[in-house]
Amino acid sequence: MGWEDRQHGSVTDGRGGGRFRDALRRMFGEGDNFLNWSFPLYSAWGIRVRVHLLFVLVVIGELVRSYFGNTSGSLGVAYMAIGLASLFGLVLLHEYGHCIACRRVRGEADQILLWPLGGLASCRPPHDWRSHLTTTIGGPAVNALLFPILGGIVLALTGNWHAVLFNPFSPGLAIPDVRLATSQLQPMWLISLWWLYFMNAALLGFNLLPMYPLDGGRIVQEILWSRVGFRSSMVIAAKSGLIGAVVLGVFAVVFGNTLLMGVALFAGLTCWMQGRQIQFELAGEVPGYDFERGYGGMPGAEEEVASGRAEAKRREREEAEQTELDRILAKIAKTGMGNLSTKEKKFLTRATDQKRRG
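RE: above sequence
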């Protein structure tokens, strides 16, 4: 039973304890899955949006650190809040892109989880490389569509190319150039728009890195899938993803970026688990099993399917015969044997012989 189906406050101790326990249960589930430590935000178009508890703690921590930070170049709590809000909205739109693309290829998509390392969309496209590729591209496509729109608006308002083209590793240095072209003022709404532009560009560039399980790595894996098959493409993606995670981890240590370190650890763990799964499948592989076809590739699966179809037809035929026999017997009870047709008499005789033999 999902969290949305549970009854609230069914058992209380007079102090709201039941409601509190229900709230914890909806947030943490049974506690055995870290990704379930989240709470619902809203539902729209059949897609539930949940926010991870750790995401909330990280946002609070960043705002507090920004407020009390005394280092030079600190953007302040207002700028940090704008940046986090921009990132939240863009990641949400990115994940909606995955969900919409998945549904376009007749797949299923029903949930989005927002957590400190980005977003996770629960997408289940058909098991073919085109459907998976379309689903993956749907996310970056949203950011790619927004990039020229937001950049053009910022350039038109500021009249300054330095507000649009700058060092992405030092975005704070570009903020002095984010001024209205007519009055040289820096209204908060313009800063917010610029942050939206910067965060969208950063999200697009980062997700397109060719490292599994980022979107760029998934795109490479799905293209390889069309050429070398699913399993071989996953082996390549897992091995190259581990190398990319190590490189990203070193980069994160050099620049002291905890977020990138978290992404590197998550990517490395995902690739390692994927590699172990493939090894397990190879170790237990059945001779003659076709991995690409799932259960249909098992030896004798086609014969089993054919046998199942024959059995279903036999049961359907027996049910039809029993229905006809019941009709004839009801006719006899109502009008007598003399009103049976020749065909009905033959059917009754044959059915009687079958009952005697069986």
